[in-house]
Design a protein that fits this description.
- The complex is a heterodimer.
- By secondary structure, chain A is mainly β.
- Chain A has a single domain (about 20-110), classed as Rieske [2Fe-2S] iron-sulphur domain (Rieske Iron-sulfur Protein, 3-layer Sandwich), CATH 2.102.10.
- Chain A is built from no helices and twelve strands.
- The relative contact order of chain A is 0.24.
- Chain B is of the alpha/beta class.
- Among the domains of chain B are: about 5-110 and about 240-305, FAD/NAD(P)-binding domain (3-Layer(bba) Sandwich), CATH 3.50.50.60; about 115-240, 3-Layer(bba) Sandwich (FAD/NAD(P)-binding domain); about 315-400, FAD/NAD-linked reductase, C-terminal dimerisation domain (Enolase-like, domain 1); about 630-785, Sulfite Reductase Hemoprotein, domain 1 (2-Layer Sandwich), CATH 3.30.413.
- In chain B, helix 1 runs parallel beside helix 8 (about 290-305), helix 12 packs across helix 14 and helix 22 (about 720-740) packs across helix 25.
- Classes of the chains: A mainly beta, B alpha/beta.
- The interface between A and B is large, with 39 and 34 residues.
C-alpha cells in the first residue's frame, strides 16, 4: 500500500523579497520559516528559522555558502556560527543538531514553500 | 601450543601502560589483569581535576571495551590475595585461582598515614583514589575550614582541591622547614609560600602534629609546640608507601623501608615475577612519577618479547602548575658551590625565583629550580640532558636575551636527534621530525596520533609544536594562513589582488580567485577588504556581511539588537543625552554606559532600528560602528580644559582623531585613547593606539589591547606635535589594514611581525619601505569618502525594507524575542 502525504504549497513571498545569496524569514501561522535565494547556484532552500543550538530565531539572517569538495550548500547561524546543510538540515559540526527543511518552488515571481 | 599467560596485578596508570606496551610489541600473550579498585585505570596525575568538573569517565585512560577488544581479561574490584610461587598460581579475593607464566606486580602505592592519636576520627581522609575524592567532596559540603598534612607536591594538589571545593579557610601543615622539600630549595620555597599565601592558603612550616582532637569527629589539630588549629577536616598527604605486602607474603625480596627490589630488567628475586611503578625499588629508590613508571612498563614488555632494554634510573625533573603558580625542578637542583656555580634570579614583586647550577667551567647546565615562571623549563631540561654547551652569558637562559627578538624555534632545532622530547611516551626529537618530514604530520593533533608524543602529562606540547613548525620551515614548507577552504590566499594576498584588479564585489572576487560558493568566513573577510579599499556603503552587499554589519547593529540574546550612537571622545551635550533617554524610553530599550565612553541601547527589534536611527540622526547623531570591525572609540580623559594636572587638551584631540578615522574598516576592531598627562586616565596604553600628552607634545603608543590577552601598547614616537601624530597614525593604521590576517588585533599582528616593534618603527617613522606617502594618501581617500551608514540606510527604501523580521508581515515583531524586568529596566530572557 502506498501512503500519500499531501504537500500543501503556501505562497511565502515574492522572489525579490529575498536578497540574492541571502535569506529572509516568513511567518506561517505560528511557524517561522527561513527562505534562501541561492542565486549563485540558481537554487532556493527553506528551513526552520529557529537555530536549535540556543533556540534563537535567526537562521534567516545567517550567511550561506558551500562546504567541501561536494559543495554542500549550507547556512551559518549568526549567533555562534553553527553551520547546517541546506539539503538535509544536519549540523555540519560536531553537534547532533538538525534543522527542519521544506521544499521550495518558484512560479510567476512568487516563492512557494511545501508544508506537510 | 597455548599462549603464555601474563597476569598483571594492579590496574593503575602503569599497569594499564604495560598492557598497551606489551600489545604493541606482541600478540603472543594471554593477558589477565586484576584490579583492586572498582574502576578501570584512570589518570591519577590529573586527579584534582575531578573537583573542577571532570568526571571519572573523562579521567579514564581507555574505554572499558578496550580491554575485551584487545583480548585482555579484566577483573576489577578483585585484589590478589596470595601468590604461590612453586605452583606459579595466584589466588584472588573473589576466589579465582589462575596459573601464570609471568607475573607483573603493578600494585602502586598507598598514602602513608602516620600513627597519630585520633587519626581514625571522622573527617580525616587520604588523597589517592576517586573514592577518596568522593568521600572528601561529601564531607566538604559542611566544612568551613580544612587542613592538609604535608606540603609536598601531592599535599599542595590536595590543598587546591579543598579550595576548589569551596573550603573558606585552607591550611597546609608541613613538618619540614620548607614546601616541596624534595623538589625545591628554601629560597624557592619562600617564594612559593609567598605566592600561595596571596592566594589565601595558610601555610605552617616546621609543624609536627601530635594529636587529632574531637569527640567522634575531628575538631582540631594539636601540635608538638602545644599550639592548636581548629579545622573541620584533614587530608593526609604525608608521603607514599609502596604496596609490597603481597610480594612480602610471597617471600620476594623487599627493601627495609618498603618496595619490591628489582634489577635493571625489573625482575624481582623471582625471575618470573616483575615489579613496575611505585611499588618497585630500584637501587634503593622508589620512582614516584608516572614517566619512569611507563619506562619500567616498556622494559618488561621488551624483556618478555626478547627485546633489549634496561632501566638505569630516571630523570625526576618535574614541572607543574600548583594553584596557578609554575613550579619546576630539573636535573641536579640542589648541588651547591663549590661543586658548581649557581646563578640566581629573584623578583619578589612578581613572585619569580629562578636558580640554575652550571659546571665550574661554565660550559654545561647541571640543573635548577623555577618558581613563578617556568616557560624555560623544557629547553633547560633539554640543555641538561643533552649536555648542550651554554651561551657565553648563561644568565640569558633564565632572563631571556634582553633587547632584540628571540627566536624560540631555533633553540629547539639545535637539539640532537636522540634528545628525549616526550618522556612519558619516550619520543625523541628525531621521531617527531621524521613524523613531519616523512609522515606528513603538520599539527599537534596529528603528532599525538602518529607518535603519542604529548599524550601523557602534556608538558612537552609547546616543545613539540616548536619542532613541528621548525621542521616544516626547514623543509621549505610554507606555513600560510589561508582565509578558508574557498580561497587559497592569505588576507594580505587577497587584499593586494582585489586592489590591483579593481574588483568591487564579492562574486567577482570569488570567480577570479576562489572556488565553491563561499562561506561565513571568507564573505566577511572580502567584505572588509572591499570596504577598506573602496569604502562603498556596505549594506549594498548585505549578504556578505556578518549579521551585525548586515543590520548595522549588534545582535543580542533573543535576536534583538543594540544601538550605539557615536559620541566622539566621550563628550556629549545635555540635549543629546536627553534625546538618547527619550529614544530609549519610547522603544523600551535597556541602557548602559559602555567601556568606551558611550551609551549602548539594548533590546531593539529589527523593524524598530530604522525608526530609532531616524530620531537619533535628526538630533545630530551618527552611527558608532559598534557592530563593525572598524574604529570604535577614542577614549579621552578630561584634559587641560578642566583638569588641574592636564598638559594639553586631550578631549579635543580625541574628537579630532575619532572623527578622522570613524567608519574605516579593518581586519579587527580598533580602539584609541588620548590622555592629557602622564597619569593616563584615558588608559590609552591599553588601546590599539594611545596618545599621551608630554611637556613638549605627545607620545604615541601603538598595538595595545585589553581582552583575553591584555597587552600594553608600545612607544612608537616621543614628543611629537599633533600633525605628526596624525601622520604616523595614518601610516600605522593603513599598514595594519593592508597586511594583517583577518580577525587579528594590532597587538597580535605586531607579535607575529618579523622584526617586531623595531621593524614597525622603521616602516612608520623612518619610512624604510618608502611607503609613507602612499599609506597617507590611501588613508586620506578613506577619510574623504566617509559616510554615515545609517543615514544611507534609512534614506534608501530598498535597503530600509530589509529591516523587518517577517518579510511577509513587515509590521509584526518576532514574538520569540522576549524580555524580563531587571532593576527598573529590561533584560533578554535567558536562553
Amino acid at each position: 500500500m502506498e501512503t500519500v502525504i499531501a504537500t500543501q504549497w503556501i505562497m511565502a513571498c515574492y522572489v525579490d523579497d529575498v536578497p540574492e545569496n541571502g535569506g529572509s524569514c516568513i511567518k506561517h501561522g505560528d511557524e517561522q520559516i527561513a527562505i534562501f535565494n541561492f542565486a549563485r547556484r540558481n537554487e532556493w532552500y527553506a528551513t526552520q528559522n529557529l537555530c536549535p543550538h540556543k533556540q534563537q530565531m535567526a537562521i534567516s539572517r545567517g550567511m550561506i555558502g558551500s562546504a567541501g569538495e561536494s559543495c554542500e550548500p549550507k547556512v551559518a547561524c549568526p549567533f555562534h556560527k553553527k553551520t547546517f546543510s541546506l539539503l538535509t538540515g544536519e549540523c555540519l559540526g560536531e553537534e547532533e543538531l538538525v534543522l527542519k527543511t521544506y521544499p521550495v518552488k518558484i512560479a510567476d515571481g512568487k516563492v512557494f514553500v511545501g508544508i506537510d | 601450543m597455548s599462549k603464555p599467560t601474563v597476569v598483571v596485578v594492579g590496574n593503575g596508570m602503569v599497569g594499564y601502560k604495560f598492557c598497551e606496551k606489551l600489545l604493541a610489541r606482541s600478540a603472543q600473550f594471554q593477558i589477565i589483569v586484576f584490579g583492586e579498585e572498582p574502576r578501570h585505570a584512570y589518570d591519577r596525575v590529573h586527579l584534582s581535576e575531578y573537583f573542577n568538573g571532570k568526571t571519572a569517565e573523562d579521567l579514564s585512560l581507555s574505554t572499558l571495551s578496550w580491554y575485551s577488544d584487545n583480548g585482555i581479561a579484566l577483573h576489577l574490584d578483585d585484589p590478589i590475595q596470595e601468590i604461590n610461587r612453586s605452583e606459579k598460581t595466584i589466588h584472588s579475593l573473589k576466589g579465582i585461582t589462575l596459573k601464570y607464566d609471568y607475573l607483573v606486580l603493578a600494585t602502586g602505592s598507598s598514602a602513608f598515614v602516620p600513627d597519630i592519636p585520633g587519626i581514625e576520627k571522622e573527617g580525616v581522609f587520604v588523597y589517592r583514589t576517586i573514592e577518596d575524592l568522593e568521600l572528601i567532596k561529601a564531607h566538604a559540603v559542611n566544612a568551613k575550614s580544612g587542613a592538609v598534612m604535608g606540603g609536598g607536591l601531592l599535599g599542595l594538589e590536595a590543598a587546591k582541591a579543598l579550595i576548589d571545593l569551596g573550603i573558606a579557610e585552607t591550611h597546609v601543615i608541613e613538618f619540614a622547614p620548607r614546601l616541596m622539600p624534595r623538589q625545591i630549595d628554601s629560597a624557592g620555597s619562600n617564594m612559593l609560600q609567598m605566592k600561595l599565601s596571596q592566594l589565601g592558603l595558610h601555610i605552617h612550616l616546621n609543624k609536627s602534629t601530635a594529636a587529632i582532637a574531637g569527640d567522634k569527629k575531628i575538631q582540631s589539630l594539636r601540635f608538638n609546640d602545644d599550639s592548636q588549629l581548629a579545622v573541620d577536616m584533614l587530608v593526609i598527604s604525608a608521603g607514599i608507601r609502596p604496596r609490597d605486602e603481597l610480594a612480602k607474603l610471597a617471600g620476594l625480596h623487599v627493601g627495609t623501608r618498603g618496595g619490591i627490589v628489582v634489577n635493571e630488567k625489573m625482575q624481582t628475586s623471582d625471575d618470573c615475577i616483575y615489579a613496575i611503578g611505585e611499588c618497585a625499588l630500584y637501587e634503593g629508590m622508589i620512582y614516584g612519577l608516572v614517566a619512569p613508571g611507563y619506562e619500567m612498563a616498556d622494559i618488561v614488555a621488551a624483556h618478555l618479547t626478547e627485546g633489549e632494554k634496561s632501566f638505569y634510573g630516571y630523570d625526576m625533573s618535574t614541572k607543574l602548575k600548583l594553584i596557578g603558580v609554575d613550579v619546576a625542578s630539573f636535573g641536579d637542583a640542589f648541588i651547591t658551590e663549590p661543586d658548581c656555580r649557581t646563578i640566581l634570579f629573584e623578583d619578589t614583586h612578581k613572585g619569580i625565583y629562578k636558580r640554575i647550577n652550571i659546571t665550574n667551567d661554565g660550559k654545561n647546565l647541571l640543573g635548577g629550580i623555577l618558581i613563578g615562571d617556568a616557560d624555560a623549563y623544557n629547553m633547560l631540561l633539554q640543555t641538561v640532558n643533552n649536555k648542550i654547551v651554554l651561551p657565553p652569558d648563561p644568565k640569558d637562559l633564565i632572563l631571556g636575551s634582553r633587547g632584540g627578538e628571540t627566536n624560540a624555534g631555533a633553540g629547539v632545532m639545535s637539539l640532537p636527534d636522540d634528545a628525549l622530547i616526550c618522556s612519558c611516551e619516550a619520543v625523541t626529537k628525531g621521531a617527531i621530525c621524521s613524523a613531519v618530514s616523512d609522515g606528513g604530520v603538520t599539527g599537534i593533533d596529528g603528532m599525538k596520533k602518529c607518535t603519542k608524543a604529548g599524550t601523557g602529562c602534556g608538558g612537552c606540547v609547546p616543545l613539540v609544536k616548536d619542532l613541528i613548525a621548525g621542521t616544516m620551515k626547514a623543509n621549505g614548507q610554507y606555513v600560510k594562513n589561508v582565509v578558508c577552504e574557498h580561497f587559497d590566499y592569505s588576507r594580505q594576498e587577497l587584499f593586494d589582488l582585489v586592489k590591483i584588479n579593481g574588483l568591487k564585489n564579492y562574486d567577482l572576487v570569488l570567480d577570479h580567485y576562489g572556488k565553491g560558493d563561499g562561506c561565513e568566513v571568507c564573505k566577511p573577510v572580502v567584505a572588509s577588504i572591499l570596504s577598506s579599499l573602496w569604502n562603498d556603503v556596505i549594506v549594498k552587499q548585505e549578504v556578505i556581511q556578518d549579521s551585525n554589519d548586515r543590520f548595522l547593529a549588534n545582535i543580542q540574546k533573543g535576536g534583538t539588537y543594540s544601538v550605539v550612537p557615536r559620541i566622539p571622545g566621550g563628550e556629549i551635550t545635555p540635549d543629546k543625552l536627553i534625546v538618547i533617554g527619550l529614544v530609549a524610553k519610547k522603544y523600551g530599550l535597556y541602557t548602559k554606559i559602555t567601556g568606551g565612553q558611550r551609551i549602548d541601547l539594548f533590546g531593539a527589534h529589527l523593524s524598530d532600528l530604522p525608526l530609532i536611527w531616524e530620531e537619533l540622526i535628526d538630533a545630530g547623531f551618527e552611527s558608532g560602528h559598534a557592530y563593525g570591525k572598524a574604529l570604535r572609540t577614542v577614549k579621552s580623559c578630561v584634559g587641560s580644559t578642566w583638569c588641574r594636572f592636564g598638559l594639553h587638551d586631550s578631549v579635543t584631540f580625541a574628537i579630532e582623531v575619532e572623527d578622522r578615522y570613524k567608519g574605516i574598516r579593518a581586519p579587527h576592531k580598533i580602539k584609541g585613547g588620548v590622555s592629557g598627562c602622564v597619569r593616563e586616565c584615558a588608559e590609552a596604553q591599553s588601546k590599539d593606539f594611545g596618545i599621551i600628552a608630554t611637556e613638549k607634545g605627545w607620545n604615541l603608543y601603538v598595538c595595545g589591547n585589553g581582552g583575553s590577552k591584555p597587552q600594553h601598547a608600545q612607544l612608537l614616537a616621543t614628543d611629537i606635535d599633533k600633525e605628526t601624530v596624525v601622520k604616523y597614525l595614518d601610516r600605522f593604521l593603513m599598514f595594519y589594514i593592508k597586511t594583517a590576517d583577518q580577525l587579528t588585533r594590532t597587538a597580535t599582528w605586531l607579535n607575529k611581525l618579523d622584526g617586531g616593534m623595531s621593524y614597525l618603527k622603521n616602516v612608520i617613522v623612518n619610512d624604510s619601505l618608502g611607503l609613507g606617502e602612499q599609506l597617507e594618501e590611501e588613508m586620506q581617500a578613506l577619510v574623504n569618502t566617509y559616510h554615515c551608514e545609517w543615514k544611507e540606510a534609512i534614506n534608501n527604501p530598498a535597503m530600509r525594507k530589509r529591516f523587518a523580521h517577517f518579510i511577509n508581515a513587515p509590521d509584526e515583531k518576532d514574538p520569540h524575542a522576549q524580555f524580563e524586568p531587571m532593576r527598573e529596566q529590561v533584560r533578554a530572557k535567558e536562553w
